[in-house]
Specification:
mainly alpha; 274 residues; single chain; 10 helices; globular
């Protein structure tokens, strides 16, 4: 028998060539980062293929942006900030997009995955459970990147002129995603799928209407002092600070970090895989 030759292609799962010219098996899992990347890509595709998720992620935020700016200009809506309405609405709608994806979409998808046993089976796969959760978070960031391009492009068409506050915006999106994702997993982990669907949509509507996410807290009068401590208000104010003043709103980022820690603690204590 001829000596075994090395595998020049370095294909995973295949070992050296045997005398018959076939590859000998080389058992073993892919590196964790590759497993997480594959899981994230699959999660992102599933979210974008789902009509309800796409509605929450892109269609509703774009409609709110276009409708809010158009109706506000037609009705001569006046806010405390003298800037054009598109400059105020666009950062708020970007915050709404982060909330819709990292909280509502994630909670609903995870709730039904628990119901049908998908989470349980994935938890028993070679992908560690921490890798599964990491894949979900990376998928959220990928979808949010698409949202930023779409909503930002629509805002530019409407005349949006943002200030260059990239650092504040990046930190707001990162901490906002962590806060809302942890809360979404908490809701999905303690309620049945149908209850999760109802609760996630209800919370989304309440925060969109009264959580100071689309409009600044100054538009809510005395309730603004309460809304600024909500994750929606903190996210909206942090993104508005980035794009209206090119500032990093450390107080609002601290509120988001606190909500992320609270949500993570609740999820770790209560989340069940089936």
């Amino acid at each position: 028998m001829a000596d075994a030759a090395p595998n020049p292609a370095g294909n995973p799962g295949t070992g050296p060539l045997t005398g018959s010219g076939a590859f000998a098996p080389l058992p073993g899992g892919a590196p964790l980062w590759r497993q997480v990347a594959a899981q994230a890509a699959m999660e992102a595709r599933l979210m974008l293929r789902n009509g309800e998720q796409l509605l929450l992620a892109v269609v509703i935020p774009v409609l709110i942006l276009v409708g809010g700016v158009t109706a506000g200009e037609h009705l001569n809506l006046k806010l405390t900030d003298p800037r054009p309405l598109v400059d105020i609405f666009t950062p708020g709608v970007l915050a709404l997009a982060v909330m819709s994806t990292s909280f509502t979409s994630l909670a609903i998808a995870t709730g039904f995955e628990r119901r049908y046993g998908v989470i349980k089976r994935l938890g028993a796969s070679p992908l560690p459970r921490v890798g599964l959760l990491a894949g979900k978070v990376v998928a959220l960031l990928l979808v949010e990147l698409l949202q930023m391009f779409v909503i930002g492009g629509v805002g530019q068409i409407l005349g949006w002129t943002p200030e260059p506050g990239a650092v504040g915006f990046f930190l707001a999106v990162l901490l906002g995603t962590a806060a809302f994702a942890s809360l979404g997993l908490f809701v999905a982990g303690v309620l049945r799928a149908e209850a999760t669907l109802a609760a996630a949509n209800l919370i989304y509507l309440l925060l969109m209407a009264g959580g100071a996410v689309v409009l600044p807290i100054s538009a809510y009068g005395g309730f603004g002092d309460v809304a600024r401590w909500l994750p929606s208000g903190a996210l909206g104010e942090a993104i508005r600070a980035a794009f209206l003043h090119a500032e990093v709103s450390w107080r609002d980022l601290g509120v988001l970090l606190a909500w992320a820690l609270i949500g993570t603690g609740l999820t770790a204590r209560t989340f069940t895989w089936e």
